[in-house]
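Input chain follows. Return structure tokens only.
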Amino acid sequence: MASEASPRDVPRPSLTDVGRLAGVSAQTVSRYFTGRGYVGTETRARIDAAIAQLGYRPNNAARSLRAGRSKTLGVLALGPLNYGAASILTGLTQTATTAGYGLMIAQLDIDPDLPTSSPEVRRALDAFLSSRVEGIVVTSPYRDTEENLGEVWESVPILILSGRPQSNHYAATVDSHAAGLLATRHLIELGHRQILHIAGPAKRNESLEREGGYHEALSSAGLDPLPVQRGDWSSSSGFAAGLCTDPASFTAVFAGNDQMALGFIAAMRERGHEAPRDYSIIGVDDMPDARYFSPPLSSIAMDFTRLGEIAIAMVLHPIKTGERMPNQTITPVLVPRASTARLP
């Protein structure tokens, strides 16, 4: 007669068994126990249920991994290092240092339409994970960046800083649509009806949102838009727009950023037209130099440094608690100066 198996003969449930029952990877179950990485609320609940059903008990070695944090965050900055991106990095760096964390930064000025861009992003993310970062902040002006992050979502908390974040992702932003509304409404309230918009690149989130605000403000006032001039955020592209635009076709200009406004003002001055005598102009960003333009430039303040500060708090919260904070949106502020005036 065969003897019954003793309790010692029954295989002990493993991390893989728990993950299989919970519908997640063994790595996710490991993060659940070690606390080294993000595990979402619903996923934690499934793991809890699987642990209870299997009677799984972690060993002391797994528990001891809690002390092995890297105290490092990854920052993937996509796109050119312009004023907004540099300000975000300033906020990220200062706040991470205060919190006792280091940053591993990868800045990729890539064209997202090229087939080589996705492998570059993948290599940067792999480097982060190999260095055991506890969370990742992704700053991107491009649409659909979230789709390129793949399974990294399951590895660590990822926060997206974007001018047009997808609603189902963990994200923070400065509201570029509201910036377009504020700027255009300011010009309308000054009596202007022919308002030109110099927009940023066609496939950039901030550019699309600011242009959308421009159209919404005009539509609400019963006004028609003028053909949009398109630049690339640089002063030279604003200058080019100023050279090819008929001065009789507009009385006011909403430039998508301060640098394009600066170039436009310079071109119009060469043609004998001065702001605000002949036209009004407003930009976006409220760069520190904007108040020293000639004339001092009206602008929409976008607190990108504050966005970086908020981002660190948001990415650390799930690392420490397992829970996400609500998504955050910073509201832009109108800063009127001498470049805008009431229509004579």
